[in-house]
Design goal:
Strand content: 15-25%
Helix content: 25-40%
Order of helices and strands: HHEHEHEHEEHEHEEH
CATH class of the largest domain: Alpha Beta
Oligomer: single chain
Distance between the termini: 96 Å
């Protein structure tokens, strides 16, 4: 009898719970609490680009360099302090070029862009400078070509009516004609010489075909001082509807943006 009562009690409780469940009203939907979105910090790539731009702006400022029989390392250190930038001397690159930080330098330049002064200082030593990750790196010319220059082919058939006409090659500037020189107007003197420096005159590049004009425009718009006809290492040529360029990654990116803008404007 007790077992029957227990079963009856269990069934009664189950029925009551089922009835309560069927009569229960649905719960009101809850609002999702507002979340304050965090401020998105610039990516590393953006930060590096901003740092590079700041260094380039400093190198674009006019300054002077007046040293007599001064160790090369001290000259670089003082120039970096004046420009408020970081300059890194690549030991492997200096060794490759046969240059030591104790090597004596004599140079007298006034009212010149810092980048021009660096170029004039480094060319006789077979060194080259480049901006990377917010610092100026000084290394050998050979290592600069290997590590900082890359080749890329751009399709420019939409931009040229006569894409089959190749462009003229950029004339090369002979550094030997202007060792330690950038023109007598700045009071420049070659290292170890009391004679005024020989004027640095880039060879002429006179565009004739549409391809030549495109090459000339890119040289003027992107890193003007870095092309071979102006003492740099960058090369560029139009062939078969393509623009073949060897330059730094940064310059290649700028060229890509310029060509894309030209395509948009030409539509």
């Amino acid at each position: 009898m007790r077992a029957v009562n227990n079963v009856w009690l269990f069934l009664s409780v189950a029925m009551l719970l089922q009835t309560a469940a069927t009569q229960r009203l649905p719960a009101e939907p809850r609002e999702t609490p507002a979340i304050a979105l965090p401020t998105v910090e610039p990516t590393n790539r953006q930060k590096i680009k901003a740092a590079d731009e700041a260094v380039k702006a400093a190198l674009n400022e006019e300054t002077k360099l007046d040293v007599i029989e001064t160790p090369f390392g001290d000259v670089i250190k003082d120039l970096a302090k004046t420009l408020e930038i970081t300059v890194v001397l690549d030991p492997e690159g200096l060794d490759e070029a046969g240059v030591t930080i104790d090597q004596l330098v004599t140079l007298n330049l006034h009212d010149k862009r810092a980048a021009s002064i660096l170029r004039i200082l480094l060319e006789p030593l077979h060194l080259h400078h480049a901006v990377r990750d917010g610092v100026v790196v000084i290394t050998s010319e050979e290592k600069y070509r290997e590590e900082f220059l890359h080749s890329r082919v751009f399709d420019i058939r939409e931009l040229l009516e006569k894409a089959g006409t190749p462009s003229k090659p950029l004339p090369r500037l002979d550094p030997a004609s202007a060792l330690g020189a950038f023109g007598p107007a700045g009071g420049g003197k070659a290292s170890g010489s009391d004679k005024p420096a020989t004027a640095l005159t880039p060879p002429p590049y006179e565009p004739q075909s549409p391809a030549d004009h495109l090459v000339s425009m890119v040289c003027e718009m992107v890193a003007p001082s870095t092309w071979v006809h102006r003492g740099g290492f960058g090369t560029m040529k139009v062939f078969g509807g393509t623009l073949i360029v060897r330059q730094t990654d940064e310059a290649l990116a700028e060229i890509e943006g310029l060509l894309e803008e030209l395509r948009e404007k030409s539509k």
